[in-house]
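Sequence in, structure out. Go.
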Amino acid sequence: MSSPDIAEMLEKSKELDRLRKEQEEVLLEINKMHKKLQSTPEAVEKPGDNSLSKLKMLYTQAKELSESEMSISNQLLGQLDAVIPAGGAGQQRRRIEGNEQKKKRMKGDSDIPRLSPSMRNQQEFFASLKGEQVAARVAQEDGEKDEWVIVKVTHYDKESKEFEVLDEEPGDDEEGGGQRKYKLPWSHIIPFPKISDLATTPEFPPGKQVLAVYPGTTALYKATVVQARKRKTDDYTLEFDDDEEDGSLPQRLVPFNQVVALPDGHRQ
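Output:
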């Protein structure tokens, strides 16, 4: 793992710490508002009182912070998944199997997995993606390297922690045509930014490499941001790798909600 990758992970960890501190502050404010409304519920009926509006604003802020935390956590988990040795999982299994007798002595609900608040929020976030279009890394039928395409999430299995997705683009005649279905781990999924939630939309500066939907297709390719955007709703101006025309790379406009962070270790 290169130093830039480690530095990026450390920065994301710092951002997570900041988000969690902000969430704690917002929750304290929400609790204060709850106590106020419980002690003086008649206050909301007074002219000029904005208690309910403030409470709504706090809940909205808490939701946005939580979604930002989930997004960054997802990116960090993807980075870690890319660098953890393949043998790590097998070693973990052997250690668990070695404690089989200890497991047999456990009783009742001790076998029920306990989810931390962050893990529970993550599970809820994954489940909320049902019906959404996302970027997904899928294997090609001809055995070539994986490719990133737009798919629709049809189900998230909390037990197997796998997404069931549908590639709605019909396949080639040689592949039998029709829509293709896949079961994918979370590390093969990247949610697109939501037009309705600009507060959590990432900003990619000029020179940043990203993964973006190539205009007129449902496939995503590596590209470089050419210039800064004035507004969060503006399109990105990108240059796609290997998109050379007449000796130069053409600049193409791509909607901001079809551009995501380039996954670590991406090869094209």
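Check: The two ends are 19 Å apart (CA to CA). The chain has a mean pLDDT of 78.
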